[in-house]
Design a protein that fits this description.
15 helices; 4 domains; Beta-Lactamase; five-stranded antiparallel sheet; 517 residues; alpha+beta; 24% strand
Length: 517
């Protein structure tokens, strides 16, 4: 009773449903059942006599697809239900059937044509089957028109993409997680000058030794949502020639297809060469500016040198006269020492001029803005003295460390000061005053050049440093434009504003070394 109850509880068949035969092994279906099974298939089936190749039977799916009944199909030949093209000749299908007899099932493409003239591109599988009554070739086929349309569309897209990429200046590469180069576009091969059959190798094979760590870091840290920030690398082509590449990359992961990095690169050798030429031109302009500044001061410097040189001559002549008199050795020694001091003064003037105008390789180093101002103050005071301008130096109390090219920042100070001094020409204001000051303002090193001269036209302050604009009559503004170029290159800002009561306030702001670190 307990066992029967358990069986009843587990029986979840609908009421009235027939029970399966107690024997789990089903006997082979009879002919009607076999036909019903084949007719239930969605795959089309045609049976051909293995010897005569004639159709001997078709399932329901084949009849519907071709638009014929079984009786109508039996007398038909291949041309009656095939698209008339050379690649669908009867001999091709027969050859596949013959191979099926020896090599097993054969898969081939065939285009059937229905009674109404509708073509059905199919994937056909021919299988040799020996039956009791006769041997047959069973051909199973299914419509792949939609699949083929998708494949053709993909091929068109691929052809278009290949055509578009062929004319690109930019190369595309796929890099595996372990650094292997899996793919490079044709445009990329042109950039790298790789032959079509040349192996791709590893990504680091193309990079100079000095840049490898930086490239590894860029690839390792590449984001997946958007490309990385572009970086430049000097690479070596397979033929040994160098070039510069601009590279950006991002992580890509396509399930079952791709896992790695998509790298975009472009040859920027011409851009780098132009930038190098511009830098060299800027250096020449900066040097010319310094040389020109000293040239404009030649008469003042000559006057300054004439005084110590004349004193040297007088002291030496006095020493010679005293040496001709007995007991005058001490006076002669005093005269010679005085001459030595004046000669040293003259040497310092010459050294200062040489240090300022000499050509040097650009060197960025730590310097105190106050010391740079002190270095050039001598030249400013010489120029101001000749023009009748009073110079006041107001230095900040604390050091103002900046990372800079010392000579260039000195050149900026000179340009601003000389521009202010020259602006006083023709100005009847007295006294003419130029104030140069340094200070720490908001965590930045600041230099100011304030004059009480005529100033500039209202609205011209914003474009004063843009080139071909000047605060002095007849000036071309190249010196001020050069100031902006130098300051900007040092990560700073430069600007001008009017002074109440007349004059100009030029302000240079540079990042402190601590803020840059």
């Amino acid at each position: 009773m307990r066992a029967a109850h358990a069986g009843a509880m587990l029986d979840i068949r609908p009421r009235g449903a027939a029970r399966l035969h107690s024997n789990p092994i089903m006997s082979f279906p009879d002919e009607d059942d076999f036909h019903r099974l084949l007719d239930a298939l969605t795959t089309c089936v045609l049976l051909h006599d293995a010897r005569t190749r004639a159709i001997v039977w078709a399932n329901r799916a084949a009849c519907i697809a071709l638009g014929f009944s079984v009786e109508e199909l039996l007398p038909l030949k291949a041309p009656d239900m095939t698209r008339p093209e050379p690649k669908y000749q009867r001999e091709i299908a027969v050859s596949a059937w013959d191979r099926a007899l020896v090599d097993g099932p054969q898969v081939y493409e065939w285009c059937y044509r229905s009674r109404t003239g509708v073509d059905m591109l199919s994937e056909a599988t021919a299988t040799y089957v020996p039956l009791r009554g006769r041997d047959v070739v069973m051909v199973q086929f299914r419509d792949i028109s939609a699949e083929e349309a998708v494949r053709q569309q993909l091929r068109r897209y691929e052809a278009r993409l290949r055509e578009f990429m062929q004319d690109l200046d930019e190369g595309i590469a796929v890099v595996t997680p372990d650094g292997g180069v899996q793919f490079i576009s044709e445009s990329g091969r042109r950039v790298l000058e790789l032959a079509p059959d040349e192996p791709l190798g590893e990504v680091l094979d193309y990079c100079c030794e000095a840049d490898r760590n930086r490239l590894v870091a860029q690839l390792r840290d590449a984001p997946s949502a958007y490309p990385s920030a572009p970086q430049r690398y000097r690479i070596v082509r397979r033929d040994g020639s160098p070039c510069w590449l601009r590279i950006l990359c991002r992580q890509v992961e396509i399930e079952g297809d791709l896992d790695g990095l998509l790298v975009q690169f472009r040859d920027v050798s011409d851009e780098v060469a132009i930038e190098d030429a511009r830098r060299a031109e800027a250096r020449m302009l900066e040097y010319a500016g310094r040389y020109n500044a000293m040239g404009e001061m030649a008469s003042v410097i000559a006057h300054e040198l004439s005084q110590p040189l004349a004193a040297v001559r007088n002291f030496i002549e006095g020493a010679v006269q005293r040496l001709n008199t007995r007991g005058a050795v001490d006076d002669a020694i005093w005269g010679l020492r005085s001459a030595d001091r004046q000669a040293e003064h003259a040497a310092l003037i010459i050294k200062s001029v040489r240090e300022f105008i000499v050509k040097r390789e650009p060197v960025v180093a730590l310097a105190d803005l106050r010391e740079i101002l002190a270095d050039v103050a001598y030249f400013i005071e010489l120029r101001a003295k000749e023009a009748g301008v009073t110079v006041e130096i107001v230095q900040g109390e604390a050091p103002l460390p900046i990372r800079c090219e010392r000579v260039l920042i000195g050149q900026v100070i000179l340009n601003l000061a000389f521009n202010a001094i020259e602006a006083f020409a023709g100005c009847e204001r007295a006294p003419c005053l130029l104030t140069l000051g340094t200070a720490n303002v908001g965590g930045h090193a600041e230099l100011r050049a304030i004059d009480n001269g005529p100033g500039i036209a209202e609205g011209a302050h914003d474009r004063l440093f843009d080139g071909f604009s000047s605060s002095k009559v007849g000036g071309n503004g190249i010196g001020l434009s050069l100031c902006k170029s130098i300051v900007t290159r040092h990560g700073g800002r430069i600007g001008a504003s009017p002074v109440e009561g007349g004059g100009l306030d030029c302000r240079v702001t540079l990042p402190l070394a601590d803020a840059q670190a």
